[in-house]
Each structure stands twice: as structure tokens, then as C-alpha cells.
TrEMBL record:
One of its GO terms (biological process) is DNA alkylation repair. Residues 1-26 are annotated as: Disordered. This is 3-methyladenine DNA glycosylase/8-oxoguanine DNA glycosylase. InterPro entries: Alkylbase_DNA_Glycosylase/TA, DNA_glycosylase. It comes from Nonomuraea jiangxiensis. GO terms for molecular function: alkylated DNA binding; DNA-3-methyladenine glycosylase activity; DNA-7-methylguanine glycosylase activity. One of its GO terms (cellular component) is cytoplasm.
Length: 292
């Protein structure tokens, strides 16, 4: 397990895709429940901290794999050496969040599918599609999981979803085709030897660019430098938090350059500052492709 403080909810939070995510729950006792499709099959994992100790329980064919992967999921291999805070506002966020770790799931497709669904749409639209697809194509979570939890389907299932069900989920043809194409290459993606190779493989696929690759590598491999260039909000937040003025992607990269090797880590702490630029102009609308 990671040395030092550990905030389980904060560390596992990036794997939650909106309220009602069928793969993620946090119960009243503070425990986090998470499902995964491991190389050995579906699993349900329950993680909580009691008396200063991390307790993990798992069920299903993939239970053993899930428990072996638990240290990595909780950031045991997250090395922040070389992360030198250069902005007072980030120093304050680091001080207030000592339990943050960047963990890794080791599972590419379960990070890739929701990332593609989130391309160029607001979160609520993507999360609605994610819930619909998991409800119709996911498996019930093994073990005593909270009601409604599901396990992501196998790659072959993603390839076989008919176009009208993508439409009913609210995902238009471009995102559906991107997911189906990636599913044909799932074995190669899952076997990628490191973040650079995974980035190359992902970006060779149609419909996957810098932003999607970064979002996948952050979660699947715990890449602390995979900054989400192209995010609708991130550049503005980084600029405002670090300079008091919004900026664009090139400006964000200039501001984060001193944190190279840990640019994603720095951007996470930017989010945790709570600083947001004043809202001006229309918000991005929630579209419903089911009515198109």
C-alpha cells in the first residue's frame, strides 16, 4: 500500500463517470465499490480504510487479479519525485490534499470507452450514454455489490452493438465507430508496454486524438504527465488559477512546462484549488442524439 496519507475517495474518484455510474459506488460507511473486467473475468472490489489500514475485498472470477492490482490502483507506484511546486496556490492545494495519489487500473478499454463518449459533449450527455450501455450490455456485478452495479462488457460485445442501440444510448455514429474500431484492437492496446507505446497505438486509431489518449493513460497507466490538451475547461482553469487570467491550450502548456513529467499531477491540483474563472457567455448545450 502507499506510504503516507491516502484518500481513497479522492484517489479513486477519477474512475467515476458521473452520478449513477454503474461501475462505481461510495457507500455511507465510506467504502468505495468498483467493478472491473480483469484478464481473469469480471470482479467487484470493495475498498475502505479502517484504523489506518486499507482493507480490500473482491468477488468474482477476477477477484484475485483485482486484489493483486489494488496497490497500483491506490497509487502505490505513483512516484512524485521531481514534482516541485512553483506556485503558491498549488502549494496550498498540495498541503490540503495529502492523500491524493495517481493510481492505475491496468485496464485500457474500460477507460477508453467512457473517454470516447465524453468527446466534444458535456459530461451529463456522455454519462447518460455510459449508464444506458452498461445497463443493456454490462454484466451484473459479482458478489454483494450495491444494487445496480454492472461490469463493463468484453471487447467483442462493444464491436457487436447495433447502430440503433448506439442511437438509443445517445451516442452518434462517429463515437460509436471509434469505440467499435478500438475494440478490434483491444488485445494490443491492453498489452501496450508503457505510456508512450499506448499513446502511439491509441492515436493511430481513427477518432482518437491527444485528449482521449491522455484521459485513458491517466487512468489505465497512472501517467502523471498525460495532460488533457483539448479539454473544454482545463486550459481556462489552469490559466485562471496560476495567473488570474484564462488561457488557451498553448498558454496552458507554457504554464505547465515547469512541471514536465508531472503536468497531469499539477492540473489535478489546479482542479483541487477550487478556483474557477467567472462564467460568461452561453454554456455548452446538452444535446440528445436520441431525438435526431
Amino acid at each position: 500500500m502507499p506510504g503516507g496519507p491516502l484518500d481513497v475517495g479522492l484517489t479513486l474518484g477519477p474512475h467515476k463517470r458521473g452520478s449513477g455510474d454503474p461501475t462505481w459506488r461510495q457507500t455511507a460507511d465510506g467504502a468505495v465499490w468498483r467493478t472491473s473486467r480483469t484478464p481473469d473475468g469480471p470482479s467487484t472490489l470493495r475498498v475502505n480504510v479502517k484504523g489506518g489500514e486499507v482493507l480490500g475485498q473482491a468477488w468474482g472470477p477476477g477477484a484475485g487479479w483485482a486484489l493483486e492490482a489494488l496497490p497500483g490502483l491506490l497509487g502505490a507506484y505513483d512516484d512524485d519525485a521531481g514534482f516541485v511546486v512553483r506556485h503558491d496556490v498549488l502549494a496550498d492545494a498540495v498541503r490540503k490534499n495529502p492523500g491524493l495519489r495517481i493510481g492505475r487500473t491496468g485496464r485500457v478499454m474500460e477507460a477508453l470507452v467512457p473517454a470516447v463518449l465524453e468527446q466534444k459533449v458535456v459530461g451529463r450527455e456522455a454519462w447518460r450514454a455510459w449508464r444506458w450501455l452498461l445497463h443493456h450490455y454490462g454484466e451484473p456485478a459479482p458478489g454483494p455489490a450495491p444494487e445496480g452495479m454492472r461490469v463493463v462488457p468484453e471487447a467483442v460485445v462493444w464491436r457487436q452493438i447495433p447502430s440503433w442501440h448506439w442511437h438509443r444510448a445517445g451516442a452518434e455514429a462517429v463515437r460509436a465507430r471509434t469505440i467499435a474500431t478500438a475494440a478490434w484492437h483491444a488485445a494490443k492496446l491492453e498489452a501496450a508496454a508503457g505510456t508512450a507505446e499506448l499513446d502511439r497505438l491509441l492515436r493511430a486509431l481513427p477518432g482518437i486524438g491527444v485528449w482521449t489518449s491522455a484521459e485513458v493513460r491517466q487512468r489505465a497507466l497512472g501517467d502523471p504527465d498525460a495532460v488533457s490538451v483539448g479539454d473544454f475547461h482545463l486550459a481556462k482553469l489552469v490559466g485562471y488559477a496560476l495567473t488570474g487570467e484564462k488561457t488557451d491550450d498553448p498558454g496552458m502548456l507554457r504554464l505547465l512546462e515547469p512541471y514536465r513529467g508531472h503536468r497531469h499531477r499539477a492540473s489535478v491540483y489546479v482542479w483541487l484549488t477550487g478556483l474557477r474563472p467567472p462564467a460568461r457567455g452561453p454554456r455548452m448545450p446538452v444535446r440528445d442524439y436520441r431525438s435526431f
